[in-house]
From TrEMBL, chain A:
Cell compartments where the protein resides: Cell envelope
InterPro entries per UniProt: Periplasmic_diS_OxRdtase_DsbE, Redoxin, Thioredoxin-like_sf, Thioredoxin_domain, Thioredoxin_ResA/DsbE_sf
UniProt protein name: Alkyl hydroperoxide reductase
Domain of life: Bacteria
Signal sequence segment: none
TrEMBL record, chain B:
Residue ranges of the TM segments: 107-126
Function of the protein: Required for the biogenesis of c-type cytochromes. Possible subunit of a heme lyase.
Single biological process term from Gene Ontology: cytochrome complex assembly
Coiled-coil residue windows: none
Alphabetically ordered keywords of this record: Cytochrome c-type biogenesis, Heme, Iron, Membrane, Metal-binding, Signal, Transmembrane, Transmembrane helix
Top-level taxon in the UniProt lineage: Bacteria
Protein location: Membrane
Pfam families named among the record's database cross-references: CcmH
Lineage of the organism: Bacteria, Pseudomonadati, Pseudomonadota, Alphaproteobacteria, Sphingomonadales
Gene3D superfamilies associated with the record: Cytochrome C biogenesis protein
Name the UniProt record assigns to this protein: Cytochrome c-type biogenesis protein
A GO term for molecular function: metal ion binding
Signal peptide (from-to): 1-18
Record organism: Novosphingobium guangzhouense
Length: 187, 137
């Protein structure tokens, strides 16, 4: 075949011989970029922007109402904090939740896989910013909300729609963003 | 003396108790009574990702949230839901990431289509080569 082809063909062939190597190097570059890019291990809830699922959790503490999702649609924005006494980062975010409660933000709690006794100890040690605390003893409501761990905090608008999900503990630098999301949710 | 030691032991043990997660999920570590239902639940659980220990399936994981997910799967299977309904319910909440079973979606269809396209291209290239030879060149 090569005897009949014009002179330019072998030249093109010489260039084409590098093509597999170039493809391979491109692939290696892609893998290196993927390896060194910091991985995001958070699993965000797919329910952001959608209505809060219906649930009705029993009271976690005597003398404190449990959490019925209908309360969240009372016209005012709420924070829904998913926490537990066994969760260490929940202790870290407690002062921030306290500050938000002091600023007049209604904070509703969902305590996951917890006991009344442990919960009481936790609130005594770390402060108690919650209006209501629902006991999610089997973790079903946590799953219904698309939450993959504790702590997580949802901003819910007055119509009961989830507008924002904060994954992990609320550190002081997150307060501004949360307050902004609450303000947006109130409009 | 014995009482004192017991007291000290309890005082030291208290923080351990406090850290413990206590789940009331009934089917986290209990199989369904109906073997056929349990088999269906097991097959599904092996293809669902534990959200905490993200390389494991919920069937393999001892994380408490995996226990909650197993119980959810078994209770829903027992109530008559199909495995794909339950998978769909979880994907609605956690996205495709929660499922190990590849789904054919607007994003993933090239993964299935490209190999087919390569086979077709190879077929046409080879056919051309074979037919030119056949023409006696």
């Amino acid at each position: 075949m090569s005897e009949h082809t014009p002179k330019s063909a072998p030249l093109a062939g010489r260039w084409a011989i590098w093509l597999p190597l170039a493809l391979f190097l491109g692939f290696v570059a892609l893998v290196i970029v993927g390896l060194y890019r910091p991985a995001d291990r958070n699993v965000a809830s797919a329910l952001v922007g959608k209505p809060m699922p219906q649930f009705d959790l029993p009271a976690a503490l005597p003398g404190r109402p449990g959490l019925d999702s209908r309360v969240l649609a009372n016209g005012k924005p709420h924070l829904v904090n998913i926490f537990a006494s066994w969760c260490i980062p929940c202790r870290v975010e407690a002062p921030q939740l306290g500050a938000l409660a002091k600023a007049g933000v209604p904070i509703e709690g969902i305590s996951v896989r917890d006991t009344t006794e442990n919960l009481q100890g936790f609130l005594q040690q770390n402060g108690d910013p919650f209006q209501r605390i629902g006991a999610d003893d089997d973790g079903k409501v946590q799953l219904a909300l698309g939450s993959s761990g504790v702590p997580e905090t949802y901003v819910v608008d007055g119509k009961g729609r989830i507008v924002y999900q904060h994954i992990g503990e609320i550190r002081p630098e997150h307060l501004g963003l949360l307050l902004e999301k609450l303000k947006e949710a109130g409009q | 003396m014995k009482r004192l030691i017991a007291l000290i032991a309890f005082a030291l043990a208290a923080p351990v108790f406090a850290q413990e997660e206590q789940s009331s999920a009934p089917y986290a570590y209990r199989q369904l009574d109906d073997a056929a239902q349990e088999a269906r639940a097991q097959d599904l659980m092996e293809t669902l990702r534990c959200l905490q220990c993200q390389g494991q399936s919920i069937a393999d994981s001892d994380a408490p949230i995996a226990g909650s997910m197993r119980s959810l799967v078994r209770e829903r299977i027992r109530a008559g839901e199909t495995p794909e309904q339950i998978r769909g319910w979880l994907i609605e909440r956690y996205g495709d990431y929660v499922s190990y079973k590849p789904q054919l979606t607007g994003l993933t269809w090239p993964l299935f289509a490209v190999p087919l396209a390569f086979v077709l291209i190879a077929f046409f290239l080879l056919r051309r080569r074979f037919t030119t030879k056949g023409n006696g060149q």
